[in-house]
């Protein structure tokens, strides 16, 4: 369960942290060689090598978001909490990491929040605060889309805190998750400018839009509760069954029990990628390439460990292979990555209409 994974995150973080950084553990040493190879091929921890700030601008207004190949990030701002919590390269707190991802071409983000005092959201991954609040996210998106009005960003927003051991606990006496979200929607100047209104209504879900409908906007894909499941009707109608894990249009098999099981995760990503490519052209598919456990840390699943190829280098190879190897991928849908490399981002984008 995700809660168990987060409980493990707290324990491992406490054990491995030092006053000056993170201790080199046997697990980190084992993964080092595989991680170096992944970085060399550009699939892992090389986000800064990608620069695609306006890649949507040239696409026709009539293009459905469902037709696109969209690089995204899982736990977009998870840069704190140690090896088991961190899922992204650290390009700075308070939204600066998000800004760098957007410049690279990331267009789907995954934000997890705690309800804080004053009925506000702070960004968390499990118990670990990520040195950012929801205003940082909104302000960063507002500034970026103001400078790049041809772009749009998909947002998955999740209430992170279950209150169980190892997870975060919301501040006492605050309003419910949906009410705090509505307050941002209605009162934040940035939110009022950028949120695509059909996607942020409590009582009516939206159809998948075209680019022309949402340029310069943030499209809420889903508003997830702390224990999974969509909150009310927020987001896109096709994600009515988006729960904790996989659903009709989402692959999120996040439990990778050990590094040997990375191969299973690779296969899950591949099969869903093939399903996306051959699937309903009117539907947006979301494929989480991420996974973790106490014995398979996020960076190991992404970059590889102990001679087992990570998901990121596997994906780059698979997307580069021609028809002599397998049926080529026509569209990837949204692929949410941990520690993406620049070449992998570029390769996903290469599958878009030209």
UniProtKB/TrEMBL annotation:
InterPro entries cross-referenced by the UniProt entry: PI-PLC_domain, PLC-like_Pdiesterase_TIM-brl, PLipase_C_PInositol-sp_X_dom
Q: Which PROSITE patterns match?
A: PIPLC_X_DOMAIN
A single Gene Ontology molecular function, please?
phosphoric diester hydrolase activity
Q: Which Pfam families match?
A: PI-PLC-X
What are the BP-aspect GO terms?
Answer: lipid metabolic process
Please indicate which superkingdom the organism of origin belongs to.
Bacteria
- Which Enzyme Commission numbers does its entry carry? 4.6.1.13
SUPFAM superfamilies, per database record: PLC-like phosphodiesterases
The positions making up the signal sequence are 1-23
Q: Phosphatidylinositol-specific phospholipase C X domain spans which residues?
A: 65-223
Report keywords, A-Z. Answer: Signal
TM segment ranges: none
Keyword Signal in record: yes
According to UniProt, the reaction catalysed is: a 1,2-diacyl-sn-glycero-3-phospho-(1D-myo-inositol) = 1D-myo-inositol 1,2-cyclic phosphate + a 1,2-diacyl-sn-glycerol
Q: Which PANTHER family did the record assign?
A: PTHR13593, SI:DKEY-266F7.9 (PTHR13593:SF113)
Protein name, entry field: 1-phosphatidylinositol phosphodiesterase
- Species assigned in the record: Spirilliplanes yamanashiensis
Give the gene symbol.
plcA
